[in-house]
Amino acid sequence: MMLRRSLFLLNKGLTRRAVPIKAPIAHRCLSSTRLLLKKGKSKEAAPKTPQPTLDLDKLRGQCQVVLDKHSRELSEIKVGRDNVEAVADLRVPKTKLPVSKYADVFQKDPRTYVVTVFDPDDVKLVVSTIAQSGLGFNPQPTPKNPQQLTIAIPPPTETFKEEQAKKIAKKLEVTKMMLRAIRNDWMKRVQKLSSKDEIKDGERDVSAIIEVFAKDAEKEILKAKP
């Protein structure tokens, strides 16, 4: 009886004892490798955020585009009636198409334009368009060729000069407004610079560049005045 009880207690103790299980060698190596990789990553330096800078050449390029457009449009205003395109680009009220779609326009001499209408049915339409354009032209049909119109270019009147001056002044206003818009955009970029000294220098440089182009625009105005 005692022997049976001893065997029973012995078996019970064996079943309760925890048997340690060792991890396979490959698994232990893999875990160590992962741990080393994590440690390595923690030591890597975080990438530096690039500091904002000012590309003043880009600013000059934007201003130059505005000035080129300013000069080109002033040239068109200055030429006024002394330009074949002034007639060729007139829009026919009935169709909204330019006169160049209905006729060939060329300059015979410094004071004369010749307009050759393609279709005889469009002669009256072209004549009325040119006569009512406000350019002061009075097209006259050639006796031997009714489809050919002659336009004598009259000297500019005081009224015409005043209208030209208004157009030129308005053009300068538009150009300066465009330059101010560019300046405002670049001043926002300046405020993102790293230090107060850089911001101060940036504001000075941007303002100086805009001022140069604004003065150039004013010089173009003086050349274009009638």
In brief:
The chain has 226 residues and is of the alpha+beta class. It has helices spanning 2-16, 25-43, 56-79, 84-88, 123-131, 158-190, 196-224; strands spanning 103-109, 112-117, 140-142, 145-152. It folds into two domains: 56-79 and 157-224, Orthogonal Bundle (Topoisomerase I, Chain A, domain 4), CATH 1.10.132; 84-152, 2-Layer Sandwich (Gyrase A, domain 2).
Search tags:
Gyrase A, domain 2; 4 strands; Topoisomerase I, Chain A, domain 4; 4-stranded antiparallel β-sheet
Characterize the structure shown.
With 226 residues, this protein is α+β, with helices and mostly antiparallel strands. The chain folds into 2 domains: 56-79 and 157-224, Topoisomerase I, Chain A, domain 4, CATH 1.10.132; 84-152, 2-Layer Sandwich (Gyrase A, domain 2), CATH 3.30.1360. The chain has 7 helices and 4 strands; from the N terminus they run ααααββαββαα. It has helices spanning 2-16, 25-43, 56-79, 84-88, 123-131, 158-190, 196-224, and strands at residues 103-109, 112-117, 140-142, 145-152. Strands 1-2-4-3 form a 4-stranded antiparallel sheet. A hairpin with a 2-residue loop joins strand 1 and strand 2. Helix 3 (56-79) runs antiparallel to helix 6 (158-190). The longest helix is centred in the last third of the chain and has 33 residues, at 158-190. Residues 26-30 have low confidence and may be disordered.
